[in-house]
């Protein structure tokens, strides 16, 4: 159970020692007083046996108001304060473009539920970790376009990732086009580090820009490319045809990925090539990229304090006033 006072610090904490009087008050009101013998001589008690009024039911709680009010007064004397923290972040940001393949083969079932859905989920987890970086998104299949330019609003990126689906573009795998489009978004960046994470599951078979030429352009602009080949070894249940209603027909097909090309692109740009054969390995790949491309952050923390004693003083005053009014009126006793 959370301590309600844990959010506060105290300017005069020694006053809190006075709270030790509270157990003594509880003992006096609820134990010591009950030991006093009070007698009332009546001829017959059968007429009032088992009869209790609302006053009688409420009276035992009356001392509690006084005790709580005293506790609140003591807390107010200790001057509770809320610490208002401000952070000034100075970061050497990294600009990251995600280039994701949307060709029909990304619907292959060797990942659960398919390559595209797993790629989207793992990429989203990666984006959420990179709090101080600008991130953008390029998608490609037979052609390529920028889904989202570089931004620090990561909610926009994750929203675009969640809505990616096969069929947005002409089918095919234009790796060179996807890479060149991502480079174009980074070429004017002033960031200390510029990287592209290019994810594909096929062989370059479309587009009018050669992947090696795109890699040379990336090198010219100081852009590092990490390539990820997605797909198991051997065969996978993959789309092989499409019906007139747009539904894909699946059959076992050989997984073909141009590993040599992807490795060459990474080596040319100073990046690294990876092979993901399941979700776990893809998560490990993104985790490694996250470690390799760390953002250096300098954080200055400023604290200012806001006195909150008035809240406790007001609450204690209200409870004490209620106790006094009740004890002097409907619960007034005569000794």
Task: Identify the notable features of this structure and list them briefly.
335 residues, Rossmann fold, 6-stranded mixed beta sheet, 10 helices
List the helices and strands and how they pair.
Layout: E1 8-10, H1 21-32, H2 54-58, H3 62-77, E2 80-92, E3 94-101, H4 115-129, E4 134-140, E5 144-151, H5 154-163, H6 175-186, E6 193-200, H7 211-220, E7 223-230, E8 235-242, E9 248-254, H8 259-269, E10 273-276, H9 279-292, E11 296-307, H10 309-327
Parallel strand pairs: 3-4, 3-6, 6-7, 7-10
Antiparallel strand pairs: 1-2, 2-11, 4-5, 8-9
Compact description:
By secondary structure, the protein is of the alpha/beta class.
Overview of the structural elements:
By secondary structure, the protein is α/β, with parallel strands linked by helices. The protein folds into 2 domains: 1-33 and 53-89 and 300-335, no CATH class; 94-294, Rossmann fold. The chain has 10 helices and 11 strands. The strands form 3 sheets. Strands 5-4-3-6-7-10 form a 6-stranded mixed beta sheet, sandwiched between helices. The radius of gyration is 35 Å and the shape is elongated. It starts with 7 loop residues before the first strand and ends in an 8-residue tail after the last helix. The mean pLDDT is 86.
